[in-house]
Design a protein that fits this description.
eight-stranded parallel barrel; TIM Barrel; alpha/beta; 10 helices
């Protein structure tokens, strides 16, 4: 798989709570140079990135991150603000307390409300699969589908483990038509990225992708 093809599926990610503006600026410049799908950044940087880079940059941000137990009203307000500030995509953490209580109807209602809040922007729902049983993961697939989200996402990258191929297989078997999959967390090699894309993931959340693939990308461009 060509480096350019892999990078076109990557959300170039920096979600450290101590990330500086200089790091964000470099992240955005790399995303534009290497044609990644987006940059995934903290909400506090969305407006400044949009002002600095304009419409050329696809900006993704996170809501209810990383624990997911904010109220629905708080999440929706944050999502609307992010969109107003210039976010194109929202990665929102599922209400994990509702999931563990088996209140799947509440989870679906929250996802529905979030999708209404973001409108035509892309909504990805992070289920933090490492903390769920297989039965809960299957229920989460139903919630994401019925709530109208665009993606189900494996992990925040802040949990005890990240994406697994077993979870991606389970998602593919249980998500509804039109729901796509984002694998994130612990994806640190080119081989990992290729494997998840080959398995049917549409997006990869990774902080190392550009560093790993930049030289190959530049070589491909020079061949043209």
């Amino acid at each position: 798989m060509k480096a350019s093809e892999i990078l076109s599926h990557v959300d170039h990610t920096l979600l450290s709570p101590t990330a500086t503006w200089d790091e964000m600026r470099i992240l955005a410049e790399e995303a534009l140079r290497y044609h990644t799908a987006s940059v995934c950044v903290p909400p506090a940087y969305v407006a400044r990135l949009r002002e600095t880079f304009g419409a050329t940059l696809v900006i993704c941000t996170v809501i209810g991150f990383p624990l997911g137990y904010d109220t629905t009203a708080a999440k929706c307000a944050a999502a609307r603000e992010a969109v107003e500030n210039g976010a194109d995509e929202i990665d929102a953490v599922i209400n994990r307390t509702d999931m563990k209580n088996g209140d799947f109807a509440a989870v679906t209602r929250e996802i529905t409300a979030l999708k209404k809040a973001v409108g035509d922007k892309i909504l990805k729902i992070i289920i933090e699969a490492c903390d769920l049983t297989d039965e809960e993961k299957i229920a989460a697939c139903r919630c994401v589908t019925e709530g109208g989200a665009d993606f189900i996402k494996t992990s925040t990258g802040f949990g005890k483990s990240g994406a697994t191929h077993e979870d991606v297989d389970l998602f593919r078997a249980h998500i509804g038509k039109g729901v796509r999959i984002k694998a994130a967390g612990g994806i640190r090699t080119v081989e990992d990225m290729e494997a998840y894309l080959a398995q049917g993931c549409d997006r990869i959340g990774a902080s190392a992708a550009v560093r790993l693939l930049a030289e190959h990308f530049d070589a491909e461009r020079n061949e043209k």
